[in-house]
Amino acid sequence: MITLDQLTYAYPSGLGLDKINLQIKRGEFVCFMGPNGCGKSTLFNILSGLKVASSGTYAFQQTTIDATYLKNAQQRQRLHQQIGVVFQNSDTQLFNLTVADEVAFGLRQLPLAEAEIERRVNDCLVLTGCRQLRERVPYHLSGGEKKRVALASVLALNPDVLILDEPLNGLTPAAQHEILALLTTLQQAGKTILIASHDYLQIKTSAHRFVVFNEQHQIAYDIDRTSLATKPELQKELALL
Ligand SMILES: Nc1ncnc2c1ncn2[C@@H]1O[C@H](COP(=O)(O)OP(=O)(O)OP(=O)(O)O)[C@@H](O)[C@H]1O
Questions:
Q1: If you ran DSSP here, which 8-state letter would residue 109 be given?
Q2: What is the separation, in whole angstroms, between the first and last Cα of the chain?
Q3: Average pLDDT for 111-122
Q4: Where does the ABC transporter domain start and stop, copy by copy (predicted)?
Q5: Does the structure's ipTM exceed the value 0.90?
Q6: CA-closest candidate to residue 107, choices 124, 90, 131, 85
Q7: Which residues contact 72 (CB under 8 A, 6 or more apart)?
Q8: Is 95 in the pocket of ligand 1 (CB under 6 A)?
Q9: What band does 83 get if pLDDT is binned at 50, 70 and 90?
Q10: Mutate to test the pocket of ligand 1, among 42, 54, 163 (most ligand atoms within 8 A of CB)
Q11: Which residues are within 8 A (CB) of 177 and not within 5 positions of it... i.e. 6 or more apart?
């Protein structure tokens, strides 16, 4: 579903990603880990079409996603519908006056009847436990509530791939558990889940594959949960990230 071949991203100040080779199949639940600044957010920005690789290639469902592809507004919109992103800082993502409008915002850019929009908004608010927040101002919500509303607004577009950058940060253990349980349900429904997390102990039973970057912005380990279970030293290393 996703193929990166020798993908490099260079900021003016230095590398964000260095010659990344990666394949992700539909329905995987992958956790991206690594030290601060190793390149996880840069990778997510490339996958979602917000940044374009400096060199190497990115293909999504056998289509090369490059500057030419993204220049076309329709193609760009299709990619944004297929790959939904919950950003690290929910404040950058929430700008409507009510939670219901926030969740409906993306849907209103599509040719959908108001009744269908209302149905999808309700479904997503229920799924993410946000029904009672419907008329609240997103900006006034708690960190955990904002995260759930951001997730609801992304889910409303029914993306095939869900990218979540540090979705557990700042949440109580109970809220973290709820988000992970929801992500597992979504994966079981066929979604591909890509998550960045520093919290190995919290994520270790949810993710099925762990891709770990090093400080040189390269992939140091790409390992499935079963193999990782036989490597206590590596597990210890991940728990310290
Ligand atoms: N806008 C930018 N301009 C210049 N350099 C940047 C920019 N954004 C990121 N970088 C640099 O690129 C590298 C990768 O950053 P990135 O944000 O992708 O890492 P990360 O793994 O998501 O980090 P964290 O775990 O702290 O969120 C870092 O060295 C960072 O300083």
A1: G
A2: 28
A3: 95
A4: 2-240
A5: yes
A6: 124
A7: none
A8: no
A9: very high
A10: 42
A11: none
